[in-house]
Fold:
Amino acid sequence: MSRFAGYLPILEWVREYNRGALGSDVMAAVIVTIMLIPQSLAYALLAGLPPVVGLYASILPLVAYALLGTSRTLAVGPVAVISLMTASAAGSVAATGTAEYLEAAITLAFLSGIMLAVLGFVRAGFLANLLSHPVISGFITASGILIATSQLRHILGIEGGGDTLPKQIKGLAPNIGDFNIPTILIGVSSLAFLFWVRKGAKPLLVILGFKPNIADILAKAGPILAVIAAILAVMLGGLTERGVAVVGAIPSGLPPFAVPQVDFGLWSQLWLPALLISIIGFVESVSVAQTLAAKRRQRISPDQELVGLGASNIAAAFSGGYPVTGGFARSVVNFDAGARTPAAGAYTAVGIGLASIFLTPLLFLLPIATLAATIIVAVVSLIDFKTPLHLWKYSKSDFAAHTATIVMTLAMGVEVGVIVGVVTGLILYLWRASRPHAAVVGRVPGSEHYRNIDRHEVITWPHILSIRIDESLIFLNARWLEDYVLERMAEKPELRHVVLLCSAVNSIDASGLESLEAINHRLADAGISLHLSEIKGPVMDALKNSDILEELHGIVFLTHDRAIAHLIQLTSGEPEGEDHWHARGLI
Amino acid sequence: MSRFAGYLPILEWVREYNRGALGSDVMAAVIVTIMLIPQSLAYALLAGLPPVVGLYASILPLVAYALLGTSRTLAVGPVAVISLMTASAAGSVAATGTAEYLEAAITLAFLSGIMLAVLGFVRAGFLANLLSHPVISGFITASGILIATSQLRHILGIEGGGDTLPKQIKGLAPNIGDFNIPTILIGVSSLAFLFWVRKGAKPLLVILGFKPNIADILAKAGPILAVIAAILAVMLGGLTERGVAVVGAIPSGLPPFAVPQVDFGLWSQLWLPALLISIIGFVESVSVAQTLAAKRRQRISPDQELVGLGASNIAAAFSGGYPVTGGFARSVVNFDAGARTPAAGAYTAVGIGLASIFLTPLLFLLPIATLAATIIVAVVSLIDFKTPLHLWKYSKSDFAAHTATIVMTLAMGVEVGVIVGVVTGLILYLWRASRPHAAVVGRVPGSEHYRNIDRHEVITWPHILSIRIDESLIFLNARWLEDYVLERMAEKPELRHVVLLCSAVNSIDASGLESLEAINHRLADAGISLHLSEIKGPVMDALKNSDILEELHGIVFLTHDRAIAHLIQLTSGEPEGEDHWHARGLI
Structure:
């Protein structure tokens, strides 16, 4: 039962569901629905799809997540970055506006859903760790820039497009003179209103007597007001005849239920973008879900989130939608509006379903420029210029991964950008991991402590070399350790004993073990014994399953000081250098 | 000068070169030459190339390495595993025996040479760390099996071939009835003699009065004896007429000097195999070079080795050869025979050059079966059945990477095998790195020490959670730490303070920092303060370049005990559970 319940999180909350929770959830659903209608239309536009596809992607996927997701308040649906990635991937196999393009978008949702669900069933959520914070934040900044610039043409009322910055510039430049004044007026006033409403509406509403939290929620309805005002403006001004592009006829009714086509040719073209969409979507969604869960001391299960998001995307594919994930803005609204359980998501689905039946005729005259303004206002907050400064100060290699991701995403598109970011991050990590820290140590006079000879005044002996390893011994640094020990050894002609101080070695893998064995043999070839000291318990347990303890040409000591005391006796050695003299002076 | 000398290691030894070194080097060169002649012919056969190409690959590359390599005793030339990889890669673009096939082999050497040299100049030797010991050893075992089985057809005198085990079986099965008795006799007796000579010749020679080290070297000439005997047998028995395949006409003379063709179509097909050949060759060569250098307390420079091997392969490409690397067997012979400087390699090149001028006519009647026997005897020692057993005992994940490499190499060929091995190793590593160890700790009664609550009887407090992190905080485990802390937090309803004990945290990258900040904010949202204790010096230096120390809703303590003492005062907390009762009993 408990195992089964792990895959059906609904069982955890549905039995305690009561009228209080119902009221909260319905209230939150109404608010989220009002916010989602313009956003869904706009993101579908961004993805190069008919606006109604955005509504379709906001119905069944929400129900699927309510059944299988572990976050109580996450709101799934179309989001900006995933819409951009969908446009880029679908655009690479079909022309915008064709049936093939829509089919490609549905296939992306289907593939991505399968991949997420499979990763969830094999508990492979850890793969998302490949995306470091600098890479994600670089990717989101670059995506925000690409999205905002891609919408400029709708504000200006000209042709253009492209999935990279150079292509967008090349696409816009020749048409820049064709701008349409009424479109610009609508676009710019929508932009101005939407930017103001984000910051200015709440204080105004508070002055008007609303409670702060109510004012906050009402301010979130700003976009729907802009939509209504823009429709009225077009209607009253007869602006369609003056060149203002509008949404046009949207088919009314619930989404079509259709089994997605299985076209292996298309799958082989789209598997990589689908995988990237899955991972980016998962990483974004989980971080939103974790943030919200922590506020109420709830927990989410990242692996089960994969299953929930997978089901959502499969549901999107079966109902004419496109890839979805948990969105930040809508989830925060859902949370703030008081949603208590995933049922709120199901009620939102009902709301969007009603909208797609009854509301779509009213949206005929909605100007594209207003939707573009909605998108621009939403994504400008994604663009983050502080992170590069912080990274530059904190870590040059993280800065490099961040910058590479931004530049490559802008120059070559979202897919190349993510891949370059991940690869850069991994290479820099492997580079650092292959050069860990170690230090030659000596005894602090009059103590049992051993410290780095380069930083402290310590006593050493010509026949003994003490090396402290500040890292686990794994394949990435196995060769480094051999190098390090042999180089230090070459510096001490009278050397007879090497002691590795292992207090900071948390694990030793088979390559690390092999390397220790190689060091042992090579030292033995040169007439030197290898000793180990202060090995941690679990590491020692593992070493007992190998031959190293028998093969070692030296001794394993419990403490480093015992090792040194023993070896001094063996070699009747005296300290070397100035300390030598100093130590004798003390006697 | 010193920087320049780093790229021209010859400057280090050439000024001290004297008659003693000359004598030792010439002696070693003669012995290595005798050993190399049959081996070079045999490995060229294995690579699917005319035998003389093996000789060509053993002349200029040796001179290039003598100039640029850092090992005093490494002997470069054709080796078994690289020959197999060459056969697989060249076979994928051309048919054996064609001019295109030879061109592909030369291109592989050229590309591989350029890649190695570039990696050397950018000091990227660390990339070889991607190959863990279990992956390399699995790859070499599987290659040994593939090589041995690929030679069976020459011993039986039948047709066949293929670069994977299934293909070999499919290739051999229909022809198995066509075996040729005289070929089998020659092949099996060559095999028997060569196996015996490896173990039995030395003791016999010692009994005959030779010194052990001389006997050892003479025994290494066994293959050349087998070659001479086999040629005589074919000549005297007229065996070519009875169906014994022989080497046939080999063009006499020095290798042709020719600039390799630059065919970008071919390059795009061969860059991946060339990269794999480079990395495998480099890893093998460096481990041989390090082993030998350590015996004489010498040092090699892995990055400069890349340059030396790169130059060798470029030299091979300019002189009609194919990819080369430092070989284990020949280097050991060179070392044991007393070679003192890389000049020995240059003298060996002269020896092989003389052989290719004067000796090739004598090799007309050399049976292919004898060369196949030479190969089988050489590679049987590569096959290692002990490693899987050791790995199974020591580390299941290393065992998994090892087994995956063997199975995929046998089933899908050398390229897929290496890639699967590297990817499996990395995924298992990332999986482990993303789940590091941490422990909730409590105070050992009557002390200032803090230990894992699951392993020791310790005191804890209901308002305070102490977590010891046993790993650096990096992007691979950043999400894990958030999960871990939030899960532990959810277990303690009265919690007010979390203290992270950071004594084992060797570094914190930007993702780890971001994660700490997220934990700080999320705990604050739940009314809990985050404190840190025992941060290492270099980590603290880095954190001072970030905002975390200002944003922290808690305090950074020098020792964990001070943290606990302070927080107990703050919360006037009493210990919880049995220890609570116990502690009160003590008062």
